[in-house]
Design goal:
With 295 residues, the chain is of the alpha/beta class. It has twelve helices and twelve strands. A hairpin with a 5-residue loop joins strand 1 and strand 2. The model has no long low-confidence stretch (mean pLDDT 93). It binds S-adenosylmethionine.
C-alpha cells in the first residue's frame, strides 16, 4: 500500500458508493493500489461503481458487511487477493475478434513459413491475454487452415492469462452455440463437436485443443519462457495499464518476437516506448519486428 493509502485508511473516509456495503474513498484506494501493484491494472475513481459491483459478490460470499472489512481480509490473504484481481478483470472476448488479424496471420506469417514447418521447423504463437480461449482457438483454427496436420508438426500455441477461472474455461474449450457465430461454417463443422447432454454447447475438438497450452501468467511478473514467437497476440489488456507499464510490456513482448514476426494489439491500443524502434507498422493494429534487430 502507498503511504497515502495507508494514512487515509486509518481515519474516517468519505463514502464513495452507497449501497448494500459501505465503500469509502480509502477502501477504493487500498483496492486500486493492490490492483496496480499486482496486476498493472490502473483504476481511476470514476470506476468506483464498477469496482463496487464486481467485488460485492466477494463480500457476500465471505459474509462481510463493509469494504473496510474486505480490505483487511485482502491484505492478509493471498488467495483472496487473487480472487479480487480476477473479479476486477474484464474478460470480454470472442472468436475471430478483429478478423483482419487472422487474415494477416494466415497470409503474411503462416503461409510464408509453410515450407519450413512442413520440413519439421518450429512455429510458436502466443496469446498473451487469452481470456476464456476464443482468441488462441481462433489462432489454432487459422493454423489448421494452412497446416491441417499441425498436430503432427512442431507447432505450439501458448495461451496465458492472469485469471485462473478463464484459463480453466479455455482448457475445457466448451462454448455456447451463439458464441460460435463468427466461426466460419467449415471450421465449425470440422473442428467442433457436440457435448453429450448439453445441446446448446459445442466443444473444440481434441486436434485443436492439443495445439494450445493454457497457463496462468501475470504479464507484470516473470515470464518463464524464452520464445521466440513467430507472432504474439496481446490485445485489449494493456489498455488497463498506465503508460509506463504499457511501454514496458511492449518492449518485453517485442524482445520475444523473431525478426519479421508479428505483434497484434487491441483496436484502441498503440505501441509506445522503446519498442517503437524495433517494430514497424504492418497493417491495422499490426506490427512486424524489423529485420536485422539482434535477437
Ligand atoms: C478484455 S480481455 C482480452 C481477451 C482477448 N485478448 C481479446 O482481445 O479478445 C483482457 C484479459 O486480460 C487479462 N489480464 C488483465 N491483467 C492481466 C495481467 N496483468 N496479466 C495477464 N493477463 C491480464 C484479463 O484476465 C482478461 O482475461
Amino acid at each position: 500500500m502507498t503511504p497515502a493509502a495507508e494514512r487515509s485508511s486509518t481515519r474516517p473516509s468519505k463514502t464513495l458508493v452507497t449501497g448494500e456495503f459501505e465503500f469509502s474513498v480509502a477502501d477504493f484506494r487500498v483496492i486500486a493500489d493492490i490492483a496496480k501493484t499486482e496486476a498493472g491494472i490502473d483504476l481511476h475513481e470514476s470506476k468506483a461503481t464498477l469496482v463496487y459491483s464486481r467485488l460485492a459478490k466477494r463480500l457476500r460470499s465471505l459474509g462481510l458487511a463493509t469494504f473496510a472489512e474486505y480490505c483487511a481480509t485482502v491484505r492478509g490473504n493471498d488467495e483472496e487477493r487473487g480472487n479480487m484481481i480476477a473479479a476486477l478483470t474484464t474478460n470480454v472476448t470472442r472468436f475471430f475478434r478483429e478478423p483482419h488479424h487472422f487474415e494477416h496471420l494466415r497470409k503474411d506469417i503462416l503461409e510464408p513459413l509453410a515450407d519450413r514447418v512442413r520440413k519439421g521447423g518450429r512455429l510458436r504463437l502466443w496469446s498473451a491475454a487469452s481470456s476464456t480461449g476464443q482468441e488462441p482457438y481462433s489462432m489454432a483454427l487459422t493454423v489448421l487452415s494452412v497446416f491441417p496436420d499441425a498436430a503432427e508438426r512442431d507447432v505450439r500455441i501458448l495461451a496465458t492469462d492472469l485469471n485462473p477461472h478463464v484459463i480453466a474455461h479455455g482448457k475445457k474449450g466448451q462454448y455456447r452455440k451463439e458464441e460460435l457465430v463468427d466461426v466460419p461454417q467449415n471450421f465449425r463443422s470440422k473442428w467442433f463437436e457436440s457435448v453429450p447432454g448439453e445441446p446448446d454447447s459445442m466443444r473444440v475438438c481434441d486436434a485443436v485443443r492439443s495445439l494450445v497450452s493454457f497457463r496462468e501468467l501475470n504479464l507484470m511478473g516473470t515470464w518463464p519462457f524464452k520464445g521466440p514467437f513467430d507472432a504474439i497476440f496481446c490485445r485489449n489488456v494493456v489498455i488497463y495499464f498506465d503508460r509506463d507499464t504499457q511501454g514496458m510490456i511492449w518492449r518485453r513482448l517485442s524482445n520475444l518476437i523473431v525478426n519479421d514476426g508479428a505483434l497484434y494489439i487491441g483496436h484502441s491500443e498503440r505501441v509506445s516506448g522503446p519498442a517503437v524502434d524495433i517494430l514497424q507498422a504492418g497493417g491495422i493494429t499490426t506490427y512486424r519486428k524489423k529485420s536485422g534487430v539482434r535477437q
